[in-house]
Amino acid sequence: MAGISIELLLAALMVAATPILLAAIGETVVEKSGVLNLGVEGMMIVGAICGFATAVETGSATLGFVGAAAG
C-alpha cells in the first residue's frame, strides 16, 4: 500500500458505495410501510442497463435518464 494514499482510497470507497447507500436508504423508507423488497440491487442494475441502452440508441443523455427511470 505504499503507492496508494489513504485519502485517495477513502475517496474511491465513498464514490463506489454511494449507489448502494442510496438503495439502502430507499429500502429503509419502504420497509417502514411494511413492504419488504429483496430485489433492490437487481432493480438498480436493470435501470442502469435500460438507461445505457436508451442513451446509446438515441444519442440523448436526457432520454437515457428517462429510460433509466422507466426501466
Question: How is this structure best described in words?
Answer:
This protein has 71 residues and is mainly α. The protein folds into 2 domains: 1-35, no CATH class; 39-71, no CATH class. It contains 3 helices and no strands. The mean pLDDT is 89.
Brief characterization of the structure:
The protein is mainly alpha-helical. Helix content is 79%, strand content 0%.
Q: What descriptive keywords fit this protein?
A:
flat; 71 residues; 2 domains; mainly alpha
Number of strands: 0
* Total separate domains: 2
Instruction: Using the CA coordinates, give the radius of gyration.
Output: 16 Å
Helix share, percent: over 70%
**Low confidence ranges:** none
Order of helices and strands: HHH
Strand content: under 5%
Give the helix tally: 3
* Shape summary: flat
What is the average of the pLDDT values?
89
Reported for the largest beta sheet, the result is: none
Report the end-to-end length measured between terminal Cα atoms: 40 Å
Structural class: mainly alpha
Topology:
Blueprint: H1 6-32, H2 40-58, H3 61-70
Helix pairs in contact: 2-3
